[in-house]
Specification:
This protein is mostly helical. The chain has five helices and no strands.
Amino acid sequence: MFEMMPKLLIVIFFAFVVAHFIGKRRLIGFKWSFLFSLVLSPIIGLIISLSSRKNDGLTKIQPSETKKRWGYALLILSVLSAVKILMDFIESNDIKSFEFVFCFVAFIWGGFLLERSKGL
């Protein structure tokens, strides 16, 4: 466990750098940029942050019912996926990392869409 600590600290550091210097100046914001960089990887978080529009203070995101529906759909999908992972773990004491990552990413993305559905 302790051998993973330096790698984890490096990932957290680079996620913070991406979120602080790029994410907070864009519509994605610091919080979501940091979360995507931490969960996926700092490189993917950088790509997501750079693909977000710059926050010029004039750009407004309108409330969206579609984003709200997709957000709830992803949250439900992630919960169902978590139940399946738990059932598989109870049966065989084995967690498939791809399913776990999918579940986690779907949960984060669903939360992001729900927050954006309110508009800015």
